[in-house]
Amino acid sequence: MKQVVITGPLGYSGRHITRRALEDGYAVRGLTNSPGRANPFGSVVPLHPLAWADETALARSMEGADALINTYWVRFDHRRFTHAQAVANSAKLFAAARRAGVKKIVHVSITRPDAESPLPYFRGKAEVESSLAASGVDHTILRPAVLFGEGPGEDILINNMAWTLRRFPVIGVFGDGAYRLQPIHVDDFARLALRSLAADGPRVVDAIGPETFTFRELFERLGRILGYPRPVIGVPPSLGYAVARLVGVVQRDVFLTREEIRGLMEDRLCVDGAAPAGQTRLTEWAHRHRDALGLRYASELARRA
Ligand SMILES: NC(=O)c1ccc[n+]([C@@H]2O[C@H](COP(=O)([O-])OP(=O)(O)OC[C@H]3O[C@@H](n4cnc5c(N)ncnc54)[C@H](OP(=O)(O)O)[C@@H]3O)[C@@H](O)[C@H]2O)c1
């Protein structure tokens, strides 16, 4: 039986990848930043802390594994965590994997990472891809745009778009709303991650779903599916950000950052000309889940509590 180490097996995509890996017959070990959280896989998936301060322990936690699947990242800069830390930690993780004799790394990145971008998310992702290449370990980089599914509230962006539709009589999109997204279902993504273990690298895969929406269209389509067909109007990004901040304060969360709005508006969650890597259509999935989708707000910070 092959051994795979997965970072973030209690997190969103990591949990789905772990479930698929077990179904595919892999022995799975988890590395986590949340060692105190309940382990839904029990003793089947032993958990080790991500020992960022002790690179020997980090390497030891991967000894004997054939492969590493890495989902670790932070969504925004915060007083408790930063992109700069995530970049430095990711380099340590890849170096430790090499030291432990790991033969293959499947790494989760983002569509259109960019070393020149002023946006720390997209610049940081490009830096992490470079440190992976420099590690010398064979690898596949998966670049999803947006993940959605399976249970309502598991993903944040699509769930909270639905939550907004349920609560606000009018939807304001930043600018013209014509920038695009290509969401991929989380289980299609998990299957892709598992398939990538067997592929020779180095490779980069744009992990996009079968449908492309503009941001405006996505609100319009979801609104009709949920039975809340709200008018969608363009608003200045600064006004949209002010409303997003207010929602964040009320929910004790960070709803959307200025940088995320800019990333969306730069069309970074879309790649032209790539074949879909997932088959599940967001519109069909949303129909199946329309009674529950967006009923509750999904909070990034509550997940990190
Ligand atoms: N979700 C999306 O729509 C989307 C879209 C494009 C790209 N991606 C990329 O896909 C990967 C996985 O995304 P995901 O949505 O599955 O993420 P996630 O569950 O929120 O995070 C993945 C793992 O990173 C660790 N992590 C997250 N925030 C952290 C923080 N503030 N401090 C320390 N550790 C933190 C967590 O480890 P522990 O659980 O062990 O604490 C978590 O399991 C990421 O690289 C992300 O950039 C996601």
Note down, in words, how this protein is organized.
With 305 residues, the protein is of the alpha/beta class. It folds into two domains: 3-147 and 183-207, NAD(P)-binding Rossmann-like Domain (Rossmann fold, 3-Layer(aba) Sandwich), CATH 3.40.50; 149-181 and 211-303, UDP-galactose 4-epimerase, domain 1 (Alpha-Beta Complex). Helices cover 39% and strands 17% of the residues. The protein is built from eleven helices and 13 strands. The protein has helices at 12-23, 55-60, 83-100, 120-135, 157-167, 186-196, 215-226, 237-251, 258-265, 282-288, 300-303, and strands spanning 3-7, 27-32, 47-49, 67-70, 104-108, 138-144, 146-148, 171-174, 180-181, 183-185, 203-207, 213-214, 232-235. The strands form four sheets. A seven-stranded parallel β-sheet has the order 3-2-1-4-5-6-11, sandwiched between helices. A two-stranded parallel sheet has the order 7-10. Strands 8-13 form a two-stranded parallel ribbon. Strand 5, helix 4 and strand 6 form a beta-alpha-beta unit. The two termini are 35 Å apart. The model has no long low-confidence stretch (mean pLDDT 97). NADP nicotinamide-adenine-dinucleotide phosphate is lined by residues 8, 10-14, 32-34, 71-74, 81, 108, 110, 144, 146-147, 155, 157, 304.
